[in-house]
Amino acid sequence: MFTRPSKANVNPYGNRPRILVLTPVYNETAGLPAYEQAVRAVLLSRADCDVQVLFIDDGSSDDSWQRICEITSRDPRFRGIRLSRNYGSHIALSAGFANIGDADAVATLACDLQDPPEVVSQFIDAWKRGAEIVWGKPTTRDESRIRMWTSRVFESLIRKYAMPPRSHFTTGSFLLVDRKVADCFAQFQEHNRVTFALVAWTGFSEAVVEYERQRRRTGVSGWTYGRMLKTMYDTFIGFSQMPIRVITITGGLVSLLTIPMAAYILYHRIAGHAILGWTSTMLPLTLFFGLQFLMTGIVGEYLYRIYSEVVRRPPYFISATTRGGTQVPGEERVETVASNGV
Questions:
Q1: Rounded to whole angstroms, how far apart are CA atoms 46 and 121?
Q2: How far apart are CA 26 and CA 65, in angstroms?
Q3: How many angstroms separate the CA atoms of 286 and 292, rounded?
Q4: Does the predicted model carry a pTM greater than 0.85?
């Protein structure tokens, strides 16, 4: 719920809460005009709060950054930062969370408008009623049945094995969070990031807003099956003990199987029976070596992630920002995402 700012954080707009909308952009030149129009009509027109938009250009190769500069030159309520290359939507959102300024709440909104701005307006209403995390839950999707089934399986698995119990999270990272949640989010240090999982892990009070997901108006969705599987993989590796427990249990079961096999081999040895054939020898070897390599690969994945955290590479670099509608080269290297500077 919105509370009166302290003297250390004076609200220049009186008692109206300040909402910042984070919008990652990657090759969205064709969609930016419609996005600007929709956000102006629905969000910037609200009289009970002051809404601003922060574009995060995730290394677009088209004219998206030029279009962002044009938008920010027309209206100071729009700002933009440009990353030095394409880091992925979750890192782009992290860059946005590190630059929220004095916002009282932070929402996310995709540039393709499949998630309508009207739902963000409902997020704001739910936040003003006291929710600290507001999730957008699509009730319909303009997608194939296989894709919808895959999404449901993905969500059910991570809900059961990775996320906090009784969390109301949704997997699309379409959400609004209170300032205190945003500050907590900025403290996460891992490089392999899944936005909705990190937000859900904080455990603050939640609300859910259901909506109908719209058809994409322009361009092609970057949410491919490969990225869906990677998100699922990152979520399990980063938030669940299940993979390493499966390795332990499987290793124990395989070890137990060696006892009757050893007894069987010793019996035939003592009884003087003929040596067993090629199939009975190679089939168990193939099975067990396959399991061993699979387990080694999973352990190697954990080791690589430990290495990536230990070397402490910056998660991203900002190459340019917009100030007063003009492009300004990036002035500093971002060493961590735990900063909320402007």
A1: 9
A2: 9
A3: 10
A4: no
